[in-house]
From TrEMBL:
Protein name from the UniProt record: TetR family transcriptional regulator
Pfam families given in the database record: TetR_C_3, TetR_N
Organism of derivation: Massilia forsythiae
Stored PROSITE patterns: HTH_TETR_2 (PS50977)
UniProt KW keywords: DNA-binding
Biological process (GO), any one: negative regulation of DNA-templated transcription
DNA bind region: 43-62
GO molecular function: DNA-binding transcription factor activity; transcription cis-regulatory region binding
Domain HTH tetR-type residues, every copy: 20-80
Length: 225
């Protein structure tokens, strides 16, 4: 039998898969370098070399260093916001505030555990004044923050939690959970080991959750005390 001809749609699908693999390799190396060296300290040629490409080949996918940097930050923010949105998306009145807040803290710590380098890239951008990415942060983060604040305000009005400044409580949760990515090397050094382990993240989840519940006048479980 003659070989089955390759259709145009199959060829396009194969091209998309190949492009996706190359982009993934570029982005993986870019995250490592931006996390270690920041935007200014990262050379596009170094990213290309680490990804096994020529500089010209890399620039076919990302024509400038800023385009590559923005793509890295877009991916970070997509993941971070997906976890952030869990609070407002699930707060339809059928779930207890304590359960939703436990899930929120767990999701934020999971991001720090799973994406420590990505978190550091984002942190470096913000610490530097968000000069390249500030407008995107305002456009994408502020609406979700307001949605989460509205959830707290509704709970307060219903008498389900103690009155609290929801904005600053959420800022505190972000700081506590993201520190397990951004300052993980310092934490590991103080603890006398090479890296944080699952037990450390479990302990962090219990502690942060207990602090948040206490601030809202909600009783912790026996495991969180």
């Amino acid at each position: 039998m003659p070989p089955t001809p390759i259709t145009d749609s199959a060829r396009r699908a194969g091209n998309r898969r190949d492009r996706g693999k190359v982009e993934a390799a570029i982005l993986a190396e870019a995250v490592r370098l931006f996390a270690a060296c920041g935007f200014e300290g990262t050379a596009i040629a170094t990213v290309a070399e680490r990804a096994g490409l020529s500089k010209q080949n890399l620039m076919y996918y990302f024509p400038t260093k800023e385009a590559l940097y923005r793509r890295v930050l877009d991916d970070v923010l997509d993941d971070w916001l997906a976890r952030m949105a869990s609070l407002a998306d699930a707060a339809d009145g059928s779930s207890a505030p304590a359960d939703l807040l436990r899930a929120y803290v767990r999701a934020k710590l999971a991001f720090s555990r799973e994406q420590p380098l990505a978190s550091r890239v984002y942190a470096l951008e913000v610490i530097g004044g968000a000069k390249l990415y500030g407008e995107t942060i305002r456009r994408r983060v502020v609406p979700l923050l307001r949605a989460d604040i509205a959830v707290f305000e509704r709970w307060i009005a219903q008498g389900r939690i103690a009155p609290v400044d929801a904005t600053h409580l959420l800022f505190a949760v972000w700081a506590m959970t993201q520190s397990y990515a951004d300052f993980a090397p310092q934490m590991a050094l103080v603890l006398g080991r090479d890296a944080l382990n699952q037990d450390d993240f479990d302990a962090a989840e219990r502690t942060v959750t207990a602090m948040v519940l206490a601030a809202l006048g909600l009783p912790p479980t026996a495991n969180e005390t």
